[in-house]
Amino acid sequence: MNRQVEQDRRYSCKQRTSSRTMQLLELLARLLHLKMVALGVVPYEFHPATLSLQFRRSLLLYCFIIAIIGPMGRCWVYLTTFFTMNFGVSVAHYTAMFMELLDAILLVVPPCYLLCRHKKVKELFVLLVKVYYSSLSLSIFPLRLWFRACFLFNLVYDSAYGVNVALNLVLPGTGIHEKYVKILSWSVLSQLTKSIVLLIIYGTAQYLLRMVDHLNDHLAAGRLSTNTVYQEQIRQQHHGPAGYLEFYEQLGKMSETLNDLYGVPLITYFLMTLIHLTFVCYMTLTKVLTKWSYLSWHALLIAGIAVTSNVIDLLCLMKIVGTFARTREESLKTQKLLLRLNLSPMDHKLKQSIEVFALQTLHQPIEFTACRMFTLDYTVLFSIAAAVTNYLIILIQFEMAIEQ
After folding, report:
1. Separation of alpha carbons 330 and 244, rounded Å
2. Which of 85, 128, 148, 352 has its CA 20 to 30 A from that of 400?
3. Could you give the CA distance from residue 398 to residue 396 in angstroms, rounded to a whole number?
4. CA 23 to chain centre
5. Average pLDDT per consecutive 10 residues, the chain (404 residues; last block may be shorter)
6. DSSP 290-359
């Protein structure tokens, strides 16, 4: 009797804790949705009770304005400052002007691309909700851990950029302080919009990774028996309604949608990172290291902040790429688990069901590419390093030719 009372008390405490956790997650979800709308990425009203999105044309117009005005405002202030001051002929100055023009375009493309594909974004959200309510994931999906991972990713990115902006305001190291403050003000808006786009990509990638992990856990926990009734139950788990095969098909549709939606934004942000790293490394090698004894301490500090900021930007992108790579690796484990099950003694129907499932994983692999140009894995990092080195050599050669 006492044991039963104790179990009931523990169950009641667990239910209360779960209820408080869900209320906190709902509050954070509302705040995150408001941030996404305010920064011009999500033109939807969010209804937590039904986990649904409602499209609003007025929000779409507002989002387009916010997505465009930040980068263009920064570019306008930068170019007007550049042309009103006499910098002379220099590869560094004209490279900076070219980079600013390209930045304005590249910062506008990802959010506007997602806004133009808002119907596809809503289809992806509906698919995510459908997978969440699946019988395989409803009771075991770690919603709290997933939300915490997304929150920390966004916090690290925003904090790194916030420290960069704060230090640049305190230690400008330049005579055009007022203009510099205006550039940073417009930069904050465009960079926060970028952080939301990256958060959406990272969040959906993490979501899919955890779903694939749960599918593999179910397959690894399965034990076969020679009992005919038990084997029929296993077959229903694989091919029955809401079974493993249907669950995997939904995950395959999610990966196809992610490839369709996120290819252009990822290529755009990788191109931005390549340009920034090339320019920062060029400035560091030709202007800072060669004249460091003539520079003030705060100018050296700003140079270090610029390098660190671009490295953090690259690491955040590689975090997203790493999530996609891990998801692909976990999907390959699904094939291995099915092949291992197929080696066990079983009747013809169950064996045929597992073979069909294995063929499905072979013909519908869960993998990710950037507009089918290259696979999203860690080899991207080495490709960026090689490209930065090549362009850096070209810029240094131009600088040497001008000096001669």
Report:
1. 15
2. 85
3. 5
4. 25
5. 45 47 74 88 85 89 92 82 63 72 89 93 90 67 83 89 78 57 79 92 92 82 61 65 78 90 91 84 71 67 78 88 90 80 63 76 82 81 80 74 64
6. SSGGGS-HHHHHHHHHHHHHHHHHHHHHHHHHHHHHHHHHHHHHHHHHHHHHHTS---HHHHHHHHHHHH
